[in-house]
Amino acid sequence: MNKADASIVGNPQAYPTHGRFKGGGANYLQTNISESEEQTLIVVGRAVNPIPSDASTTGDESTPFYVGTYIGKSATPGVVGTSYGANLYHVATASLTGGASRNNGSGGATSALLSVSDVPTDWGIRVMRVSSSMPLKVQNITRNTSNQNADVRPRVLTDTLFRIGSPSNSASFGAEVDISFVAIHSVVLTDAELSKQVEIIRKRMARLGILV
Questions:
Q1: Which of 8, 60, 67, 106 ranks highest by number of CB atoms within 10 Å?
Q2: 136-158: b or e for each residue (b if 16 or more CB lie within 10 Å)?
Q3: pLDDT, tens only, 157-188
Q4: pLDDT digits (tens, 9 = 90+) for 81-125
Q5: What phi, psi does 92 have (nearest 5°)?
Q6: CB 16: neighbour CB atoms within 10 A?
C-alpha cells in the first residue's frame, strides 16, 4: 500500500483473467517494494508449459518464476556479499520452491530453500511465509500441500526490489508463467489471516472462471 505503481518491462501478454510473463529478464512487472525481515508471498498462477524431468534444480530456461527479489547485495547490517532474497518459483518436474536467505553464521548469507510437491501447470494458490523467528513454510493451498523446515537463523535481506514474473539479476527461470493475483506482505500472516485472504481470493478467481 501507498507505494508507486509497478512498471511494465518488456511485453507481457494481457488476458481477461491474467497476465503472461516470461522470465530471464524478458517480460515482468518491476515493483517498488523492498524485502522485509518478515515476509508472506501469495500468488495465483501456473506454469504455461510442463517442466521437463531434466530441468535444473536451481532454475534454467524451462523453469518459471512467480515473484521475488531473487539476488543482490546484502541489505542486512553486518552481513556482506551476495544474498538471495525471498522468492517463489518452480524447479524440476513437480516442485514449488520457496527461498529466503538466512545468516550463515560467518558474516555471509546462505540461500535457504524448501520445496513441496506440485503440478506446475495447474492453477493454484501458492504461498510462502518466513521470518527470523519462523521457519520457512511453502504451501499450495489449492492442493492442500505444505512443507516447513526448522531453520530459524536470522534473515538476510537483499537490496533488490520485488519483481513479478522474472527474477532480478539472473537469466535463469526463463519459462513463461501465467499470474492472476499477487500479494506481497511485509509481515508473516497467521493461519487465520491467511484463511481470510484465501476466501477473498477464491471469490475473485471464481468470478474469472478459475477454481482454486
A1: 67
A2: bbbbbbbbeeebeeeeeebbbbb
A3: 999 999 999 999 887 899 999 999 999 999 99
A4: 999 899 999 998 779 999 999 999 999 999 889 999 999 999 999
A5: 55, -165
A6: 6
